[in-house]
Amino acid sequence: MLHLIKLSVGTEDVSDLAAWQADPRGHSPDGLPRHVTRMWPKRAEEVLDGGSIYWVIKGVILCRQRVLRFDEVDRGDGIRRCAIICEPDLKRVAATPKRAFQGWRYLKPEDAPRDLAPGREAEEPLPPALQAALSEIGVL
Q1: Which pLDDT score, from 0 to 100, does residue 70 have?
Q2: CA 62 to chain centre
Q3: 116 contact partners, CB below 8 Å, separation of at least 6
Q4: What is the pLDDT at residue 134?
Q5: Cβ atoms within 10 Å, residue 42
Q6: Could you write out the three-class secondary structure of the chain?
Q7: How many Cβ atoms sit within 10 Å of the Cβ of residue 114?
């Protein structure tokens, strides 16, 4: 199994990402959330073997979604694009700082942040900057 990690550009927090994904324009034809990218993962089978996409928001990994499949997207311009189709449920993870990068990257399971403990997912999240600072000093 292998995960993906991706910046959620322009997103302020997890609820903002959830609202963006609730918009039908961001859905696959079967109504699931998707993210369209130009690059097709060469290791797709490993990701589809239980992998997730981890979302970096304001420099902090805050949540993940299980990847269900990859669909080809044709926008009529001859460029083959990849839609990463995900479960609708955003699972919050332990806040983990992450520097900015372009596109998406692979993330090994042993390097992935752990899910928040049961019962903590309903807690009001801290602001991303505070989460990052607390994570850097080992409090989170």
Answers
A1: 97
A2: 8
A3: 91, 92, 93, 94, 123
A4: 78
A5: 8
A6: CCEEEEECCCCCCHHHHHHHHHCHHHECCCCCEEEEECCCCCCHHHHCCCCEEEEEECCEEEEEEEEEEEEEECCCCCCCEEEEEECCCCEEEEEEECCCCCCEEEECHHHCCCECCCCCCCCCCCCHHHHHHHHHCCCC
A7: 8
* pLDDT tens profile 29-59: 899 999 999 999 999 999 999 999 999 998 8
- Copy the structure tokens of residue 91: 């699972």
CA distance 106 to 13: 22
Domain positions in the chain: 3-136
CB 46 within 8 A of CB 70: no
